[in-house]
Amino acid sequence: MAQASTLDRPKPAAPYVTYEQFLALDGNPHREWVDGEVVPMVSVKLAHALITAFLFALLDAAVRGPGLGDVLGDPFNVRLAKRGRAPDVIVVLREHRHRYRETYLDGPPDIAIEVISPGSAATDRGDKFSEYEEAGIPEYWIIDPEEEVAEFYILDQQGRYQAAPADEWFASKVVPALRVRVAWFWERPAITQALAEMAAG
């Protein structure tokens, strides 16, 4: 009897990794924990890196500067039920700092932002959308550099995400003073200019 090709043999199941073991792993921290499995995250392109850097600078000035909260992101992990995700950027309001642990946030941030990378669109708009909704993250932003599209979702009273209108501007429900012009993500103006526009209303 011919032996089955190695290509036909099922791959052995990956060993279950606890969240504590995941956090203790050495090497590249650009990864997530999904149902006991370590999942490497895709590499990012220049546009992704530039938008993420702009968001950190803008939110740091608009949120952390006035003492409203903190701005963090990948590789700082967020523990949500059976998943340990690393959103590109998160906002944690000062009243929720009790959720901090040494190497992760134990529970939902107040805002989660994902900048789509090649290959991550299905996860960002599918799995993570559902997980962030179920975890009760009040705002979820999805930014697509390739299509130059930004989507903003607000958690309603039934715990479901509703798309917020953002033809030109988006006003955060979590941080009332935070208003972003969608074109900033592609134009990346000086932070002082963006803050001046934000204040002008």
Main beta sheet strand tally, sense and closure = 6 strands, mixed
Tally of extended strands?
Answer: 13
> Rounded to an integer, what's the Rg over CA atoms?
19 Å
Summed up, the domain count is 1
CATH architecture: Alpha-Beta Complex
Which structural class do you get from the secondary structure elements?
alpha+beta
Low-confidence runs of at least 5 consecutive residues: 1-6
Which sequence of SSEs, written as H and E, runs from N to C?
HEEHEEEEEEHEEEEEHH
Strand neighbour order, sheet with most strands: 3-6-8-9-10-11
Q: Kindly, what is the distance between the CA atoms of the first and last residues, rounded to a whole number of angstroms? A: 77 Å
Give me the CATH fold name.
tt1808, chain A
| Helical percentage | 25-40%
CATH class: Alpha Beta
CATH superfamily: tt1808, chain A
Percent of sequence in beta strands? 25-35%
Mean pLDDT comes to 91
